Amino acid sequence: MLSIIVAVASNNVIGKDNKLLWHLPEDLKRFKTLTTGHTIIMGRKTFEALGHVLPNRKHIVLTHNPDYKVDDENVEIVHSVSEIQKYVDDDNENFVIGGAIIYRMLMDYCQKMYVTRIAKSFEGDAFFPKIDEAKWKVVSREKGIKDENNTLDYEFIDYTRI
Ligand SMILES: NC(=O)c1ccc[n+]([C@@H]2O[C@H](COP(=O)([O-])OP(=O)(O)OC[C@H]3O[C@@H](n4cnc5c(N)ncnc54)[C@H](OP(=O)(O)O)[C@@H]3O)[C@@H](O)[C@H]2O)c1
Asked: In this predicted model, what pLDDT tens digit does every residue of 50-63 receive, in sequence order?
């Protein structure tokens, strides 16, 4: 199965100039807890934005470029959505980690979404699609810890497909 994991501003912005716009260590911690030991699926731009291969996770990177190569045993390069189908059919939970193009492309194949909703709007150029309430229901909602390192108001909202 596929699940989305994303951090979204109140105006649906998720990034700008191929970078994240906020620093929220509690959210990164949750990302690590949820995704460690799992396969993570992403677009080539998000992979490059990560800056390095994340430990203990298999990375699936989508690109149209047939010559794109990454010399790491934990990174697999794929060139079409059809190559993602085996992760859709898999009983394990595999995570779609972005960015905007990939969320839009794979949302209909996902069964769950782990959304960190930041209670502030940001100016950006990458957006998360609007969540269709006819297709998705909230199953858990938890206010995020606010402290000297996590200065924004935010909530962890989990959705499941109806
Ligand atoms: N807030 C969050 O949780 C979060 C999470 C992830 C990313 N982000 C942000 O999102 C932004 C990046 O998103 P983005 O939409 O620009 O890029 P992206 O979705 O990360 O990657 C897009 C790339 O994926 C490849 N691709 C797309 N469709 C494909 C297909 N059908 N088959 C094969 N390859 C395909 C293409 O790579 P090629 O150009 O190589 O062909 C395309 O340029 C950044 O600002 C990043 O910081 C935010």
From this structure: 999 999 999 999 99
**Does the reported pTM lie above 0.90?**
yes
Contacts (Cβ under 8 Å, ≥6 apart) of 42:
50, 59, 60, 61, 62, 96, 97, 98, 99, 102
Centre of ligand 1 from the C-alpha of residue 90, in Å: 23
What pLDDT, on the 0 to 100 scale, is given for residue 7? 98
**Residue list, ligand 1 pocket, CB within 6 Å:** 6-7, 14-16, 18-20, 42-46, 49, 62-65, 79-81, 97-102, 105, 126
User: CATH number of 2-142: 2.60.40.420, 3.40.430.10, 3.20.20.140, 1.10.3730.10?
Assistant: 3.40.430.10
